[in-house]
Amino acid sequence: MAGPSHATPYPVYRRVLQSAVSAICLEQGFGFCDATAMETLTEMLQATLIEVCHSAKSFAELGGRTEASAPDVCLAIADIGIRFEGMRDYMRRPGKIQIASPGIQACVTTPLTLRAGERKPLPSHIPDHFPPFPDSHAYIRTLTHRQPVTEYVAIREKVASQKRDIERALTRFVAKTSGTQTLFPDNPTLYPLIACKPSPQPWLVALEPKDQVFEDEEDDEKEELVPERGESGQQPDNPYLRGVKMPRRRF
Predict the structure, then answer these.
(1) DSSP, residue by residue, 152-197
(2) Domains in the chain: how many in total?
């Protein structure tokens, strides 16, 4: 009788039955056994145990119980035709081979490749056989951006750092496109400075009012160009700036 291939404990149970059959064969004087004969004997033992278990379950349900007891097992054994006369003596025979109980193997859990946060335990109103909660990022809303920094000291430090980087980048750009000066003659590229261009009349720049705006030079009165009757002004492209057109009345 073949067992299901997807059941995990089936190979272990099959190995235990083969060990029991091997022990019985050794007690009877056999030195070796063919693989086909071993599989046949193991299959017969497994079929007998399954039939006994099914019959014991039927007797238990017939008596109104959910679990089989010792009398149910005895009735199931007698129902398939096995006698009890020599069973007790056979169980207490001397020199029988003891089969070691199979060890318990620890479950090998595959670690998750990506795990964010900690899993919350199940509340008291949810039974333990329910699956656990997934990772917190799967159902809890989390912000994907950081809050802006509002501290005065941090903002000033950031502005100073940006200003220093801009000045350094501008100095390097001007150093590559024009002449520079250096404070360290041994290493000109260590801290380059923008070279000042000499002017023949440096005092003239201070006297020229380039940045000043005088009110006398501004003309407050602007002449409006009125188009003649024969000339039609150019209509703007923006429809909101065009002139109003009165609709024509149809009689």
Answers:
(1) HHHHHHHHHHHHHHHHHHHHHHHHHHS-EEES-SS-TTSSEEEPPP
(2) 2
